[in-house]
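User: I'll paste a sequence; please echo it back and then give the predicted structure.

Assistant: Echoing your sequence first, then the prediction.
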Amino acid sequence: MTDSADIQTRVLIVGSGPTGLALAIELGHRGIPCLVIERNARVGHAPRAKTTNVRTREHMRRWGIAETLRAASPLGVSYPSNVLFVTRLAGHELARFENALYCGPGRNPFYSEHSQWIPQYTVEEVMRAHAASLPGVQICFNTELVSFEQDDRGVHAVTRSLETGAVRAVKSEFLVGADGARSTVREAIGARMNGTYGMSRNYNVVFRAPGLAKAHRHDPAIMYWQVNADVPSIIGPMDSDDRWYFMPTGVKEGFKFEPSEAPALIRKASGIDLPYEVLSSDEWVASRLIADRYRSSRVFLAGDACHLHPPFGGYGMNMGVSDGVDLGWKIAAVLQGWGGPGLLDSYESERRGVHDYVMDESVANHATLGNQLWQQGMEDDDEAGAALRKEAGARISAAKLREFATLGVMLGYRYDASPVIVADGTPAPAHDFLNYVPSARPGCLAPHAWLHDGTSLYDHFGAGFTLLVTDDSNGDDIERARASARVAGVPLVIVRPHGMALAELYRARFALIRPDQHVAWRGDAWPSDDMRLWHLVTGRREEQSTDAKPHGRVEREAVPQR
């Protein structure tokens, strides 16, 4: 029995962190009603993530909120995104990484949006406001998932308000658990996390310290790694109100401290005696865990609900956002009638490979913390101390480049084994964390380019599929592609930027781009068996009807570039 009328929606999303919000935004932009429930209020200043990377901000550009996020940056987008390794804030510099994580503003040929150093709570505020502005998206806080059952017609869930105790029945066609590391949905579908738990114990402390930015001897930075024998840790500015974060790393088993003891630790680690007001403190454990399955029929897992890894490299929140994007456009395609069951099957096969790749990178970054870099005598003000610092700086520059110069990971991930990608037989580009080499090989992210009018090539891609014409091909192939898409019921946009040298970049006359900006197919001629192509990239069975009438289908050509 329920205390109020039942709620009906197309998709029920459990969890309103960045993963759940990305999914809700993706669905909302495609006209798919969804309900997001969150058992917490999602307020406060817990540190969580602080890097919104290139790829996530490209999604935000597509959603129309990249500029909003830029304006919300508490330190300003021009604040130096440098990472400094020091003995302590009051001590010596050991090494530095400038423009770490690609946060520096400015135009880059490889991407349409730079990364941004911004607290996750601010990112969530921007995403939440945008999601709530979309017709059909409803967000309910202080609401928990009690239980659910599913059958061939949908998912029947029960929710409860933690404020009033009201119990409601929610009917949806799909349910997505984006409910974090302690996922209720994961437990309910019987999925298990496999891997390594407890690689290290660490603490997150958020504190306010007026004057700290001017009290230390180093250049402005987003992150200071303090390498010393007392409290190896990371410290840095977090917000505009003198709010900082402090993270003791690799603490020994049994080490505990109360929030009231944190100021003394900060003084000991930094060497700077100021009044420190602790705002929050919590312990966290670094692990590498991944779910044995991401799905049970109509129920899916996304974000931390299905993968957990050390935060070094800034991948966690960003990987969850991409989970939401991938699952969002695929669920929308199925509900709009032009996507088939194979599209939903591809979610796990595509994302699991990316998760394993990125998790391995984060584990490699976790292997070198300040704890491993300290040597006795490093803080001595003599020739021997200077020599030790120089040696440590060289080790840091070699070991931590992989953590702070990672465009090859941010943009170089690909969907090699996807059942909805048409392989073309070309060799896969080598994985290189540092050097991103754009490739239009199917499964890769579509190579980016700036057009002559100042817009990004990505700005012209459609909400459905996009056929990119890279040269001055005659119109016969284009008309056949347009006609076949209409018959197949697939939304298609034709983009033909004249005067651009895209053929060399894409190494084909045509590239079929998915809604998530990954290449689904490429070739020098539109295939004669194009219905088979459409069936494959939309996950439909050969016998599935092609009478679908997609919601909001548009066709256009890009404005020619002169």
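The chain is about 30% helix and 25% strand. The mean pLDDT is 93.
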